[in-house]
């Protein structure tokens, strides 16, 4: 049951990350021309998409790797050390990217609602407020202990066993693979959306009287 809930959470996270990457892709080239806060907003969305995909791939690897290690007859204690360190590294990477960028999106949504008090803007601002409070509280509770475990694993002493060194290397490798997977997936979706949508052309079609030169 726990595995099923985790898979459902990962599937939802994948869909949300796909939507984020597709959205920022629709305005990627145009945001370079417009610049300013609009460009920052698009970049922030791109970073969040990468982080979302990284989380999905990271936890999928955490489900697969222990099975492979068990088949290879690796000691169960070493497998547990690997799982703990890898999950801590993935968690810290994701929260250190999602929470700061989330603050920007949250403030932006509040600003949009203040300027245009529509239902959609209100719902967006409300959801972003809840998500940001939830994520910030989660980080305050869990990040210090995760930092402590990672610091201990990486810098805990000079007399490391060979097995402990392998655990650290494997955990870091899992994080790197997950990040690259997140980056390439988000970039592929973003570039496809960028090719298929032209914001300026769409504005000219929808508001021809306002875009005449």
Mean model confidence by pLDDT? 86
- Count of individual beta strands: 0
Radius of gyration: 21 Å
The helix content, as a percent range, equals: over 70%
The biggest sheet, with number of strands, parallel, antiparallel or mixed sense and barrel status, is: none
List the uncertain runs: none
Task: Summarize the structure in words.
The protein has 7 helices and no strands. With 213 residues, the protein is mostly helical. The chain is elongated. Helix content is 88%, strand content 0%. The chain has one domain (25-194).
Fold topology:
Blueprint (H helix, E strand, L loop, with lengths): L1 H25 L1 H7 L1 H36 L4 H40 L3 H37 L6 H35 L2 H8 L7
Helix pairs in contact: 1-3, 1-6, 2-3, 3-4, 3-6, 4-5, 4-6
Summarize the structure.
The protein is an all-alpha fold.
Can you give keywords for this protein?
213 residues, elongated, mainly alpha
